[in-house]
Amino acid sequence: MKAHVAVLGGDGIGPEVVAEGLRVLRAVAGTYGHEISLTELPFGGVAIDSHGNPLPPETLRVCLQADAVLLGAIGGPQWSAPTAKVRPEQGLLKLRKELGVYANLRPVKLQPALVNASTLKPEVLEGVDLVFVRELTGGIYFGEKTRTDDRATDLNVYTVREIERIARTAFGAVRTRVASVDKANVLETSRLWRATVNRVHAEEFPDVELEHILVDNAAMQLVAAPTRFDVILTDNMFGDILSDEAAMLTGSIGMLPSASLGAPDAPGMFEPVHGSAPDIAGQGIANPLAMFLSAAMLLRHGLGFQDEAAALESAVDRALDDGLRTHDLGGKATTAEATRAVLGHLR
Ligand code: IPM
Ligand code: MG
Q: Which residues make Cβ contacts (< 8 Å) with residue 195, sequence separation at least 6?
């Protein structure tokens, strides 16, 4: 089968892990006889430098026409001055909005081989296997912003339609329990969220187990008893914060992939959860495994290649079982060595 993937390296370690991700994708495509064409495009801080725009029109056009978008990471200190007029993050938010990718899936699965890599106790972590379903194109990240010398506002807005569709994604995940996380004791948006989630549940998914948890309590439960979670359904900002926290359940944020999905026929976007990590950029030591697992999500959710995705995921598992450890996991393996280890298990 033929597929076209738009590739956005971005900033910091983004281009480094993307380059490795492409090697692995090409290997999978070769093994299974697929033709995957790749178009690399400027995006993020590097695009601000070259085009004065973090999302140049040509980049957006190609992404909208692709079968899927693979993204590294964006951002860095040189583009984040408080007075900056244009920021890499604006490009990412605009791309998510333009692609309509409202559902952000962030699976958090402990690889048994990494049970000692986390700062948390092994007995708390054993069996962690949950997924965040984060609303990605609404809420406070997209509401109107105002700023005067002595006052600033960010508007948090959710509509029933936005909540319904993300709730359906969470209930429709092939899992058994949904924990909907909100702040309904304080926020009106959360009260609408809770009422809407309850209605979608009762009308369309009565067999799925549902509980509501306040976000502050959820933050505590995630480190106290993470195995109680299966699907965590939440809004844009809470999902952003909690998913970084949950990354530590796997030993390193360098392990977490993500998929951002919209309408069934629209291209999805696939990216590691880790950021651009400017402190280690250019050293060849970034962990590419979150990128490989994101590439696997691209194969599964973006292109519909189930076997190919499973093969790549199991190659990552086996490389870890064999002792592969990058610097973030307390080891010495370089980015290139990690890629070789995974490629070795793909054949
Ligand atoms: C993430 C990131 C982004 C977000 C930033 C870079 C805008 O933190 O994908 O979690 O907040 O969504
Ligand atoms: Mg984040």
A: none
108-117, 147-156, 291-300, range with the lowest pLDDT: 108-117
Nearest alpha-carbon partner for 182 in 169, 195, 170: 195
Mutation pick for ligand 1 pocket among 69, 80, 92 (CB with most ligand atoms within 8 Å): 92
Pairing state between β 231-234 and 177-182: parallel
Could you tell me what percentage of the chain is helix, strand and coil, using 3-state DSSP and rounding each to the nearest 5?
A: 50, 20, 30
User: Ligand 1: distance of its center to the CA of 114 in Å?
Assistant: 25
Q: Would you say residue 104 has pLDDT above 80?
A: yes
Domain ranges of the chain: 1-104+262-347, 118-250
Please give the C-alpha separations between residue 243 and each of 51, 148, 182, 300, in angstroms, as whole numbers: 32, 32, 14, 21
- Rounded to the nearest integer, the mean pLDDT of the chain is 96
Q: How confident is the model at residue 117 (pLDDT cuts 50, 70, 90)?
A: confident
CATH architecture under which domain 118-250 falls = 3-Layer(aba) Sandwich (3.40)
The predicted structure's pLDDT at residue 347 = 75
**What average pLDDT does the segment 321-327 reach?**
96
Q: What is the pTM of this model?
A: 0.96
Token pair 């970084």: residue: 244
The answer on pLDDT for 166 being more than 90 is yes
Instruction: Just list the catalytic residues.
Output: 141, 183, 216, 240, 244
Residue 127 has pLDDT above 80, yes or no: yes
**Atom of ligand 1 at shortest range from CA of 92:** 7
Atom of ligand 1 nearest to the CA of 239: 10
Report the topology of domain 1-104+262-347. Answer: Isopropylmalate Dehydrogenase (3.40.718)
**Region for 127 from its dihedrals, namely left if φ exceeds 0, alpha if ψ lies in -120 to 50, beta otherwise:** left
Ligand 1 atom 6: residue of nearest CA: 89
